[in-house]
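Exercise 7. Given the encoded structure of a 133-residue chain, write a plausible sequence.
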């Protein structure tokens, strides 16, 4: 498994520390931000393979971050995983149609999220390498 660079954007400190801990133990580099504006700024840096977005954050929600990332993607473009308490059909289908690579509702199983992130991250990095070849 290649080491992934992951941005976690969520305003719940306990959750972000749990995810950071589990992802670092799994061998990945993790950065955490707590609001949507900062998430958008960091995600546009081109430094991340995967961005995990909460749907409900201060300053800008995760759905708006996703919309803006897809409208003006950085190079390379990170894969986006939505991790949110919003479980409505419109939320899930809307995020996937906007370009989210995956959608996981809270509460969630941390190991399931890590498996999804790793699967998506491997596909994203392979796609990036294929485009450059």
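Solution.
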């Amino acid at each position: 498994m290649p080491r992934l660079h992951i941005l976690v954007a969520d305003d719940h400190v306990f959750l972000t520390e749990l995810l950071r801990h589990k992802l670092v133990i799994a061998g990945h580099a993790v950065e955490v931000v707590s609001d949507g504006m900062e998430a958008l700024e960091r995600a546009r840096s081109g430094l991340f393979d995967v961005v995990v977005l909460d749907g409900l954050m201060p300053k800008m929600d995760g759905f708006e971050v996703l919309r803006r990332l897809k409208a003006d993607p950085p190079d390379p473009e990170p894969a986006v995983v939505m991790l949110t308490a919003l479980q409505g059909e419109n939320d899930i289908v809307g995020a996937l149609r906007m370009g989210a690579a995956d959608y996981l509702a809270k509460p969630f199983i941390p190991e399931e999220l890590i498996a999804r992130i790793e699967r998506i991250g491997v596909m994203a990095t392979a796609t990036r390498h294929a485009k450059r070849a």
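Remark. DSSP finds five helices and five strands in the chain. Students should compare their own answers with the one above.
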